[in-house]
Amino acid sequence: KAEQGEGGEAEKQSEQAERDLENAQRELAQERKKAEADLAQEIAAKLTDDVKATIARQQRIIDETNRYETLRRGGGLARAALIGLLDLAEEQETLERDTRAAAERLGSAPAFKLAMEGAAGDMSRTAALVRERKTDDATQRVAQSAVRRLQRLLEAVKPRKSNQTGGGEQG
Prior knowledge:
Layout: H1 2-73, H2 79-105, H3 110-131, H4 137-157, H5 161-164
């Protein structure tokens, strides 16, 4: 009878150990899932900040292009303005390179990468047009297209409000 008692106790301990192991595995899976979600949020926040900064830089290029167009329509561009246009084209090319580099970092997210590459293509076309001293509406539309692509990317990265509401974590 003593052996049966010890056997029963060992079985209870074994069952408890199995439950403890299952609980630990469940907790570990929850922690891993939370860590992955936190990392995804950090990446999305960084992407959002980078895209917002790119939009601001691109908008400044659009504003400058518009200013040069106003000067051109008002009587032509003086030598200083022509030099300024070359500087603007170089600034656009730098932004394009930065945008392409950001797109490469998004290799694991093909849709985002494609959006960034599309914006970079618009930036490249804008730079080429500005180098040709073209600051007209057509040039500004190409530059604005890059902004629209980036804004759509921001919309895609935004957390969905409907997914944020609910009863909290289940466990």
